[in-house]
Amino acid sequence: MPGCRWLTLAELQERHIEWRRLAAGSEFPTAFSDPAWILAWWRHYGGDHEPWSLALEARDGSLRGLALLACRQSPLARTLMFAGHGWNGLDTLIAAPGAEADLTASLLDALAERRAQWDVWRVGRLPTASLLARSLLDGAGPLRAAAHDLRLQPFLELPADVETFERRFGAKQRNTRRRKLRRLIELGAVPHLVSDPEEARSSLLGLLELRRRRAAALGQRYKHMDARFESFILEAVRGLLPDGARLWVLELGGEMLASRLDLLQGPCEHSYLLGLGETHPHLSPGSSLEWHAIQEAIRQGRSEFELGPGRDAYKYRLRARDRELARLVVASGSVRGSGVTRVSAADLWIRNTAAADALRRRRGLTPERASSEVSP
Known about the structure:
Layout: E1 3-7, H1 9-14, H2 16-24, H3 35-45, E2 49-57, E3 63-73, E4 78-82, E5 94-95, H4 100-113, E6 120-127, H5 131-138, E7 145-157, H6 162-166, H7 171-187, E8 192-194, H8 197-218, H9 227-240, E9 245-252, E10 255-265, E11 268-276, H10 285-299, E12 304-306, H11 313-317, E13 321-331, H12 335-351, H13 354-362
Parallel strand pairs: 4-6, 11-12
Antiparallel strand pairs: 1-2, 2-3, 3-4, 3-5, 6-13, 7-12, 7-13, 8-9, 9-10, 10-11
Helix pairs in contact: 3-9, 7-10, 8-9
């Protein structure tokens, strides 16, 4: 039937080819809406969640839009979130060109009709340029944000060719990068793109081990990258390879100097996981591998390269710009939801204070909000 309807996970899985095609052509394309990512998340993290996936269909029954939500039941509240919650670099609706307005209006109306079945909707990283963010922030529709804050996430606008990209930088910076990469290659460390599933498994496990070691050495959190996360990321990347993921490795004598996992969707590439060893730090193997990955993204015709959360200084040395994302708390209007919303709003306010930023810095995390202390 044309129009909007709720889909089961089984229906989504059956339509994964159409779903993937829709995600790649969406106004906000992101691998975090890809079937490989979302279905892996459901298998490893969705056990205590109920699928709330709304489909916008054309007259012929084809997909024009998807809102991939999940509802977690707990004694305190029934909480809505985007599927993939906790591991998404971006939260967004999937809409074909010209369908964003219909999907946004249909979703807000459908959630308002079912408001007796949920209490609070928590959104983590929603582009403020999206119609959904504007609708929730303006409060013109049936639902509105009870609280929100803004995050800034750096990204690169990629030119059509590598030469144009390199001209953004001074001669000294270009020559230093080239010299270090050339020296690594002379030593035998050549950037390698992994596509074989078995090699991808061992390389990903090696990347995660580098990530844990470095985090432990710097006093950062790392226990969330546990066995369950390993299983999730291995399954998701296996489903994304070879066209939806780039797994880069820089090795020397069997030792991993640096590794990175980038996720792809449409014209966008998203830097997701980075691993850095302790050998040859003077040659900056992590930076050399990143520079190589960006150049390859340009050669592949990508137009954007997301650099992930955290307004680290090195990202702006790459000439990054900031994308504004909203973190939102939306109330259903239920009695229980009102109390939970007040608590959630207070939590959001606390997370946005200077004291919270100071705590993040002590943990090795770079703040994401705009402030006088953190600027491009």
